[in-house]
What does this fold into?
Amino acid sequence: MRVGDKVTFRSDVVREGMPGAPVKVDLGGATEFVLEVDDADDGIACDQADWAEARVVLADGHTIWLADLPVLKGQQVKRYSTDPPFSFVYGGKASAELLQRWGAKRSHKKLDERRTEHTIVYTDHETGLVVRCVAVEYHDFPTVEWTLYLKNTGSADTPILSDV
It folds into this structure.
């Protein structure tokens, strides 16, 4: 966690099955802070964090849950990007090169007033590999959750897929 240029909290790596650790940080009256997830240097490609029951106690004593914190007035919120948020190596070639050749089929649907689901599907017509990314954009908070699905629709094994 950073407040301004100062790191105010850094946890040890916590793995599946390990208990969470309570965190209490004095923000010193700051109006913004940054929560970051870094690489655990363990080769796992899915480093993530779960700030369960995270909340901020304001100077006036009111409590706001992390998910309910407002985007600061005037802050630039980045909208959904058309660039894939993932990469991989397929048959020894980088996905950035392959996906351009495969082309993309994009669709989106409004889930409710606060969320839109975006889907991008890439298909390798030579091998039958289908790469589908489903992303949910939140309009009231600068967050996009995404999941990547890989499926072999061909009749033979696909080339080696790595570094997802």
